[in-house]
Amino acid sequence: MPKNKIFIFDTTLRDGEQIPGCKLNTKEKIKLAQALEFLGVDIIEAGFPISSPGDFESVKEISKIIKESIVCGLSRAVEKDIEVAAAALRFAKRPRIHTGIGTSDYHIKSKFKSTREDILQRAIQCVKWARNYTDDVEFYAEDAGRTDNKYLAQVIEAVINAGATTVNIPDTTGYCLPYQYGEKIAYLINNVPNIDKAVISCHCHNDLGLATANSISGVLNGARQIECTINGLGERAGNTSLEEVVMILKQHHTLGYFTDIKTQELNPMSRLVSDTMRMPVQPNKAIVGSNAFAHSSGIHQDGFLKDSLTYEIINPEEVGAEGSKIVLTARSGRSALAYRFQQLGFQYTRNDIDSLYNNFLKMADNKREVEDGDLMELGKQYQAKAIII
After folding, report:
1. What is the pLDDT of residue 2?
2. What is the tens place of the pLDDT at every residue in 236-259?
3. What is the mean pLDDT of residues 378-382?
4. Are 108 and 115 in contact (CB under 8 A)?
5. Are 203 and 140 in contact (CB under 8 A)?
6. Shortest CA distance to 259 belongs to which of 41, 57, 97?
7. Fewest CB atoms within 10 A around its CB: which of 151, 235, 318, 322?
8. Are the beta carbons of 312 and 339 closer than 8 angstroms?
9. Nearest in space to 226 (alpha carbons), one of 195, 209, 207, 248
10. Burial 207-216 (b: 16+ CB within 10 A, else e)
11. Which of 339, 329, 342 is nearest to 371 (CA)?
12. Phi/psi at 62 (nearest 5 deg)?
């Protein structure tokens, strides 16, 4: 593959589903998996097979129908987990087992009551178990964001020697700053002798709102896979948002990277996930929020109506959005008012708009948003007054 291709690993069906209230049944997972494949996702993490019979069934059924994307199943560094993941993936055309263990001292000492030496051996062993079932093995070093870089490099070198073809460097707690996460990826590039034999993957959480920034920093420093979810769904504050990283790489084309995502499908995919998982998208969400292409400030509206590039860096059609919106509020100006009247079929002069504007402001001060029906009423009143005069 080209060195500037960024692989998109979607974990909406696994990490995204961990949100309370977002549990999916097998039929729903299959529907979303098919949509993700159509979107152009490279790897679909379909679930955690050993976690429940239902998840096992979902991964198995998804494996049967997905033909182009890699289908991935998660496991812990436990032999039984890996056996069950392999069984769930046995029908997959392109199976991947995603296995690993925590590598930070927080996890080693508090979670596992273990030592660095023991964790290193368990990391090697889980990759060897997984390689018994597939040549495509991804290893995750959980809480890599807070793992000592020297020890992390030691683990990564060892698991690549054991057969890992992708190494996942998760900022599990969302703690890293972008420069710190980027430096961690660069450290691995420069200090793991066999790093060229594996793809480095970013898996960043959004606890401090830095998941997208950290993932992009990882790419700029040598990572070639981003693990993300539709709408940024995921554990606690969520994961890296697929639509955000994809559009950052597309808009900043001078960086030289690309993905295979069909960006015109981003908004339809967002709505499908939102409806299926019963999780509304916040209106001001980047790329797919209902206000992402809405303008309500008079200054912004005036500039936008003269040249959309003054306030929009993305064409709404490019991401499958319904188009830009001029929203009328008490902060709107005459240009926006004239534009909206024109959309409704009224042909007003500048003097007409000046006369209408004060009445519009009185209405807008008492309403959150002035709708088309309100404008029709204003227009009728103005025309009636003109006839009387």
Report:
1. 74
2. 999 999 999 999 999 999 999 999
3. 89
4. yes
5. yes
6. 41
7. 322
8. no
9. 248
10. beebbbbbbb
11. 329
12. -65, -40
140 Cβ neighbours under 8 A, 6+ residues apart? 98, 99, 100, 101, 168, 170, 203
Q: Tell me how far CA of residue 302 lies from CA of 129, 271, 336, in angstroms.
A: 62, 30, 7
Per-residue CA distances from 351 to 227, 291, 297, 301, 347 (Å): 55, 31, 22, 19, 12
Residue with tokens 């959480």: 205
Determine if residue 149 is left, alpha or beta; phi over 0 gives left, psi from -120 to 50 gives alpha, anything else beta: alpha
Q: Any idea how long the chain is?
A: 389
For the segment 123-176, what is each residue's pLDDT rounded down to a tens digit? Answer: 999 999 999 999 999 999 999 999 999 999 999 999 999 999 999 999 999 999
Supply the pTM of this predicted model: 0.94
Averaged confidence pLDDT in the chain: 96
Question: Given a cut of 60, is residue 388 above it in pLDDT?
Answer: no
* Three-state SS annotation for the chain: CCCCECEEEECCCCCHHHCCCCCCCHHHHHHHHHHHHHHCCCEEEEECHHHCHHHHHHHHHHHHHCCCCEEEEECCCCHHHHHHHHHHCCCCCCEEEEEEEECCHHHHHHHCCCCHHHHHHHHHHHHHHHHCCCCCEEEEEECHHHCCHHHHHHHHHHHHHHCCCEEEEEECCCCCCHHHHHHHHHHHHHHCCCHHHCEEEEEEECCCCCHHHHHHHHHHCCCCEEEEEHHHCCCCCCECEHHHHHHHHHHCHHHCCECCCCHHHHHHHHHHHHHHHCCCCCCCCCCCCCCCCEECCHHHHHHHHHCHHHCCCCCHHHHCCCCCEECECCCCCHHHHHHHHHHCCCCCCHHHHHHHHHHHHHHHHCCCCECHHHHHHHHHHHHHHHHHC
Nearest to 244 by CA among 276, 201, 292: 292
Give the pair of three-digit tokens for residue 169.
């460097």
* Closest C-alpha to 381, from 344, 364, 356: 356
**Identity of the amino acid at 332:** S
Q: Are 325 and 294 in contact (CB under 8 A)?
A: yes
Q: Integer distance in angstroms from the first to the last C-alpha of the chain?
A: 74
